[in-house]
Every structure is written in structure tokens, then in C-alpha cells.
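Might you be able to consider the sequence and fold that I enclose below?
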Amino acid sequence: MSQADAHDYLRRFAAKQPDSGKPWDIVFFDPPYDTAYLPILNIFGAKASGLLTKTGLLIVEHRHKNELTADAGSIIRSRLLKQGDSALSFYELTR
């Protein structure tokens, strides 16, 4: 799945909520390191996206030197783990 495919799928899924299914508890986003992360974070952070449950978690793997935004709309990074060249950013909905 390409970046455009993931972006389009998430936009379509969010637009169909709540008819398209339940929101997710955990999402692990592990794209190639040269991916533009912000468009995907913005979709998850859109107030009406409905992609995450109230206690849901978006985990994004990225190169540790590629510092991701601390927040995007209604999601905020709650944790950052770095190991070697990789990092995991954990995002949750703001309360």
C-alpha cells in the first residue's frame, strides 16, 4: 500500500463513520522512513475522524532524527521511545 493509498483509505473510512465500522483501539503506522507523516497525523487528529476510540492509541514508527509534531488537531504525542536509528511516537486523543 502506498502513502497515497493509506491517506485515501483513512479519509474514506473517516468520512463514512459511524457506518463503516468501529473505531480502532490501536493503530501501528510503520511506513518507509521517507514518508510525509503529517498528512496521516492530521487525518487521525481531525475532530470528526472517528478513527480512534476514546482510549485509542496511534503508534508511529519513524527515524529518530525525523522529529514528528507533538500534536496534530485532537491527538497529542504522549510518549516517545528511541532505540538506535528508530523511534516510536505514541499519540492519543486529547481529553
